[in-house]
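Final report, results section. Input specification for complex C-07:
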Amino acid sequence: MEQYRINKNNGLEFGLYTLGDHLPNPQTGQRISAQQRIHEIIELAKLAEEAGLDFFSVGESHQDYFATQAHTVVLSAIAQATEKIKISSSSTIISTLDPVRVYEDFATIDLISGGRAEIIAGRASRVGLFDLLGYDLSDYEALYEEKFDLLLKINENEIVNWKGDFRPALKDARVLPRPLDGALPIWRAVGGHPSSAVKAGAAGVPMQIAMLAGPTQHFKETIGMYRDTARQYGHDPEQLPVATAGFFHVAETTQQAQREVYPHINEGMKLTNGAGFPKRGFAMGADRRNVLNVGSPQEVIEKILYQHEQFDHQRYIGQMDFGGVPFDQLMRNIEWIGKEVLPAIRKYTKKEADQ
Amino acid sequence: MKIVGLSGSNVGSKTRTTMKYVSEKLTSQYPHVDWTFIDLADYTVQFSDGRNYLDYEGDTAYITKTIMEADAIIIGTPIFQASIPATLKNVFDLLPINALQDKIVSFFVTAGTSKHFLIPETQLKPILSYMKAQTVSTYVFIQEKDFLNKEIINDDIIFRLNALVEDTVMLTDTYKRIREEKESMYDF
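Structure output:
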């Protein structure tokens, strides 16, 4: 775990992620400017750090209703604005980028931040960026696999010799600068489908898995498949961290939390994904056995602890700004996290020093 | 209430002829319905490649978006080689899973032989169920002999189509009320 900068004794890491969406607030119909949105994301990272959170990440999406296409630039602003919180991507679409440039960017962010940068690399759920950046959609899988492998290779070797199909060969290439500790934690982003989890396991790299709603039991199986596959391919699952990612929102009561956030999630998903979040599915999310972390602080704490017990994962990251959630509401959420959620999670997941 | 008529074949006239009748019946009897008729023969639709339906362009985008915005869909389909046509299956493939959730779907079938009677039951209904449609269980099965010169000449078929239209509209109304009642209980 050390090479991924995870110390199991510290208990479950808790973080926030944003997709960098830039959506209207459905309660008012208004949308803030892209400039304001980007500033608010940087501000959110600062507040997360002040509240003691472990991690903050920003996503890359090249389509309407998003503002952080240049997510590494936003991350470098966050690196400068913060001091100790880990910073990463959620995720970097490695398929349509040059791994050399991605590595240069993140190694630089790592130096700016004093060794806090990580890469979480995915392959995009929407595909408009293939046309925009000049790639063929029929290479969707091959691009991801080849470029992810190259990214790992650059991470492991300062001098790289490499040949592939989607990028000119590298001959004794030095990819600089190097990160502070010589290497970066690099994770695979998994959308939730077991086959992607299996691939991550076979590759023997940490997995960040998205889980919007549904039974905890179901995702436990997927995580189990990831670890089983890792073992089959000669990797030690004990050394491979798992992170889960999903919606997060707390308020005085569960009803209030649902009422506050449902319109944002539902309308936001309609615009970015083409289908809303069914109301019944969202209502079922209140059950303790469901992974949707929306509710009163006490209920959400219990859920996260239950998920930790089931998954034995090392990091949970919540998405709470999706769909034009106003900033004062985000500030209230951060306050809840700092005061109630985080202390409880630390208390119950931290391992005693003498163990 | 938005209802889409989807004629699922690129060739032949029986399905189109029937859909024209359904179209006239529905718009005259229920003028408040926002009716859109999509005859796949009029469009160039690409094969599904798994992308989000919002990422398609042109005719393909028009068809997927129109279906996704509908409250109900009336499908008309011929039977080719003992199955639904590839053109119709492709429309299903272009849509996301659960695409037909909270939508009413009814259908009629035109076929060259009575031997095809159970094909929609065993091949079309499972697709609709998987995609979470509220399916009108009774369908209208129409054969070659029910047509002459691109007109339906069998009055029994006319009566059955009238019932299909009525059931579709009534179920759409009813389902909307059920859903509203259910959702009002959630308090968010």
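The first strand of chain A starts at residue 13 and ends at 18. Chain A has a mean pLDDT of 96. This concludes the modelling results for the funded period.
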